[in-house]
Design brief:
Layout (H helix, E strand, L loop, with lengths): L7 E2 L4 E3 L2 E8 L4 E7 L6 E5 L12 E4 L2 E6 L3 E5 L7 E4 L2 E5 L10 E6 L6 E5 L7 E4 L11 E6 L2 E8 L2 E7 L6 E5 L12 E4 L2 E8 L3 E7 L7 E4 L11 E6 L2 E8 L2 E7 L7 E2 L8 E5 L19 E5 L5 E6 L2 E6 L7 E5 L7 E4 L6 E10 L2 E8 L5 E6 L15 E5 L5 E3 L4
Antiparallel strand pairs: 1-3, 2-3, 3-4, 4-5, 6-7, 7-8, 8-9, 10-11, 11-12, 12-13, 14-15, 15-16, 16-17, 18-19, 19-20, 20-21, 22-23, 23-24, 24-25, 26-27, 28-29, 29-30, 30-31, 32-33, 33-34, 34-35, 35-36
Length: 423
């Protein structure tokens, strides 16, 4: 190290056992160093300087068998146990991601990678060289299947991949023989892998067919047990499912149906998949008909022009957050203001928790949990002034005169925070 020089931490801090791992950059020498620390000066040391390689701790990392796996940017897969001797290259792999976050099944980590002989495929690693291998080459050659992870379910991982029959739902136990396509739903099915949840021993996910569009499906892991739950937006139009959040033995999500975009709930069955409330009952706007794909008389990928129609706009629920045994979210009743709502997962238990207009504002947003309390901000109607509010656990409604709903902080145009009432 050059005397008087500075080190810049260039990666997020990662914890491995009782050690902290991080990477630094020294501008004077353009040198990158990998460090481990036990929180003391004597216990902080460089554990590797692999030819100034650039690591990627932020998006490509995982822990398995008391080791930390990470990528040397776009070139190699590395492993460390927090010591110099235990920091080494596992494989010469171009690692795109670990799918898509840390996921270990039986002390193994799955990742999307390419060995430059094959495209980006599903790989598995137990943290050792021999235990780092391709699971199955779903698209032979340099063409990639681009696996995208759903989640672990019944001892396997469920993921989407582009095989010879298009993008489909797959399952794997980490072996080639144990990697299978769950069901050929449709050659055009494109799964939204970020939207998934396990409810009542079934995996819920969203996929597309030409007849129903993107809708809610479920599987028990078998071909026969993989089926459409409900066509929420009837016909080829999609229901645009988002914000899927677990609430007890059900999931709550936003979806676009006949009443527009509203909150829905599902227990994994058709009968148990219902709209929680038509919050914006009289909100209709001039909109467009859903995109139909493929269009009649056109090749795959064609589309009919969008036609102007009058359709319900809905309340556009968002910001879903679980606090205690209730799920809170924001929604609009008039297309302008945004209120706070709470639900216990039943239509009768879906109620207004705070009206933005009653609190003297226009929009409630930025929901977060602090201990047992719900914290949110509200934009006041008179201008660029905001307040931060607290709603304690168990409180069902906040009003301007309710001390439980009193604002904590008021933020004015001068950007100075003034404490109005402490919790």
């Amino acid at each position: 190290m050059v005397p008087g020089s500075q080190l810049v931490v260039t990666s997020p801090l990662e914890v491995l056992g009782d050690r902290l791992l991080f990477e630094t950059y020294q501008p004077e020498t353009a040198q990158r160093l990998l460090w481990a620390s036990d929180g003391t000066a004597n216990g902080t040391q460089v554990i590797s300087n692999p030819e100034n390689r650039v690591f990627n701790f932020g998006s490509i990392n995982a822990q398995v068998n008391n080791q930390f796996l990470f990528s040397s940017f776009g070139r190699e897969l590395w492993v460390t146990d927090g010591t110099q001797a235990g920091t080494q290259v596992l494989q010469e792999l171009a690692v795109a991601r670990m799918l898509p976050v840390t996921l270990a099944v039986g002390e193994r980590v799955f990742l999307e990678a390419s060995d430059r002989v094959r495209g980006y495929e599903l790989w598995v690693s137990d943290g050792s060289g021999p235990g780092t291998r391709i699971v199955k080459d779903l698209r032979p050659g340099l063409t990639s299947s681009a696996p995208n992870l759903l989640q672990a379910f019944k001892g396997e991982i469920y993921f989407t991949a582009k095989g010879l029959q298009g993008e489909q739902l797959w399952a794997s136990d980490g072996t080639e023989a144990g990697t299978r396509r769950v069901k050929d739903i449709s050659p055009l099915s494109g799964l939204v892998s970020q939207v998934s949840s396990v409810v009542n021993d079934r995996l819920l996910f969203v996929t597309r067919t030409p007849e129903t569009g993107m809708e809610l499906w479920s599987t028990d892991g078998s071909e026969a047990g993989t089926q459409l739950i409900r066509d929420i937006n009837p016909g080829p139009g999609s229901s645009l499912i988002a914000q899927m959040t677990r609430l007890g033995d059900r999931i709550v999500f936003s979806a676009t149906g006949p009443d527009g975009t509203e909150p829905w709930v599902s227990d994994g069955t058709a009968a148990g998949t219902v709209q929680l409330k038509d919050i914006a009952q009289d909100s209709s706007v001039s909109g467009f008909s859903p995109l139909v794909w493929p269009s009649p008389g056109r090749p795959l990928g064609g589309a009919l022009p969008l036609e102007p129609v009058m359709r319900p706009n809905g309340s556009a629920p968002q910001d879903f957050i679980l606090v205690g045994e209730a799920l809170y979210f924001t929604a609009t009743r008039d297309g302008t203001s945004r209120d706070l709502w709470r639900t216990d997962g039943t239509p009768e238990g879906t109620l207004l928790a705070a009206s933005a207009l009653e609190l003297g504002g226009s929009r409630i947003e930025n929901l977060t949990r602090l201990g047992d309390d719900l914290i949110f901000s509200i934009d006041l109607s008179e201008g660029s002034t905001s307040q931060i509010w607290r709603l304690p656990l168990g409180a069902t409604r906040a009003t301007a005169t309710d001390p439980l709903g009193a604002p904590l902080i008021s933020l004015g145009n001068d950007s100075q925070a003034a404490l109005i009432q402490s919790p």
